[in-house]
Amino acid sequence: MLVFSVETSCDETSVCIMKEDKTILSHIIYSQTVHTKHGGVVPELASRAHLEILQQITKEALKESGVKLNEINLFSATCGPGLIGGLLIGSTFTKSLSIGNCKPFIPINHLEAHVLSSFYNNEIQFPHLSLLITGGHTQIYFLKNYNDILLIGETIDDAIGEAFDKVAKILGLSYPGGPEIEKKALEGNENFFKLPQPLINEDNFNFSFSGLKTAVNLIAKKNIIDESFIKDMSASFQKCVGDIITLKLNRVIKELYKNNTKDLLVSVVGGVANNDYLKNCFKNIEEKENVKIVYPPKYMMNDNAAMIAWTTILNHRDTHDVNFKPNPRLAIK
Ligand code: KG4
Ligand code: ZN
User: Fold this and answer.
1) For the chain: N or C, fewer Cβ within 10 A?
2) Which is higher by pLDDT, 332 or 39?
3) Which is the closest atom of ligand 1 to the Cα of 82?
């Protein structure tokens, strides 16, 4: 069985052809560059960029894999959550291919695909905890099985990646801001600025990052934004984020698992999981709480079509629905 999958929910245009045994025959990720100077994704520009490149990378993937379109058994695409323009383009394109080749179309939830991405390269038992940290979401899921995924905590305002991107913009760094802040932070003093840690004392598993961004903005307005300010602020901000996530994850593990963390694996997925400083924070949690933190393969951390194909194979071979309407706010049910 061969699956052809498309991801276009934000600013990555990606296609993947995967075999049933999870071998990747071709995987192309085109990261849009039009947003760099805008400090964030401009939806209209993202839609146009998806349109311009999708057909071309589909042809490239077919060529690279040596597969013909009429040999594909299942077609799937991200149908939400995300920017509606991109979702419509990717899903309509893929539906057309499925109809033209008389094969099923499968709608895939982008968040579920991020969550299941770590199952691609790790042996994971249920129940399982997953921390999803992306540009659009910051959520903690408790998985009883593939179809029973419970949201137990999330951000009440900005997502972590969004906070990285907004702080980068304040500091005059380019989009996406996460990798830029991580680089600058390497040479900064993480204790230079004391930043707020909203919600950390509240007895729940939720996050809040917009106050942190506002605090950075207020300090920036009172200072000259030179290289040393950028480095110290990047380091202080990153440390603050690391402290917040560590605290919340510790609380989740303690409350849900008490002292029985034997064999507990915790997945960390999504674009922000690329951050080595945060990975170090997770390493500390591993040691303190006696759990193991796992990640998806590197190419499945940022938005990508391989996680869409993998989720199709793992959990959605039979959920055919060519009439599914893309939904910008689609949640995991
Ligand atoms: O998962 P993803 O590609 O897209 C969404 O589903 O949102 O995540 C993109 C986010 C962006 O906000 C980007 O700044 C952030 O991931 N990111 C990072 C790093 N690499 C990407 N944040 C912090 N440190 C990084 N190294
Ligand atoms: Zn994503």
Assistant:
1) C
2) 332
3) 6
Does ligand 1 come within 6 angstroms of the Cβ of 161?
yes
Residue 225, pLDDT score: 97
Distinct helix (H) and strand (E) counts, the chain: 9, 10
Type of residue at 310:
W
- Ligand 1 pocket test, pick from 36, 130, 209, 302 with the greatest ligand atom count within 8 Å of Cβ, gives 302
Query: Which amino acid type is present at position 261?
Result: T
What's the pTM value of the predicted model, to 2 decimals?
0.97
- Which helix (H) or strand (E) covers residue 247, if one does? helix 227-257
pLDDT tens readout for residues 130-160: 999 999 999 999 999 999 999 999 999 999 9
Q: Whose CA is nearest to atom 3 of ligand 1?
A: 302
Tell me which H or E stretch contains 142.
Answer: strand 138-145
pLDDT at 319 over 80: yes
Q: How far is CA 36 from CA 6, 39, 162, 221, 262, in A?
A: 23, 6, 14, 23, 44
C-alpha–C-alpha distance, residues 79 and 112, integer Å: 11
Confirm or reject: Cβ of 274 under 6 Å from ligand 1.
Answer: yes
**Distance in angstroms (rounded) separating the CA atoms of residues 228 and 235:** 11
259-286: average pLDDT: 94
Please give the Cα distance from 116 to 131 (Å, whole number): 11
Q: List the one residue out of 192, 210, 181 whose CA is nearest residue 275.
A: 181
Q: Judge if the beta carbon of residue 11 lies within 6 A of ligand 1.
A: no
What would the mean pLDDT of 195-223 be, rounded to a whole number? 94
Measured between alpha carbons, how far apart are the two ends of the chain, in Å? 27
Whether the per-residue pLDDT at 97 is higher than 90: the answer is yes
DSSP for 253-272, written as a single string: HHHHHTT--TT-EEEEESGG
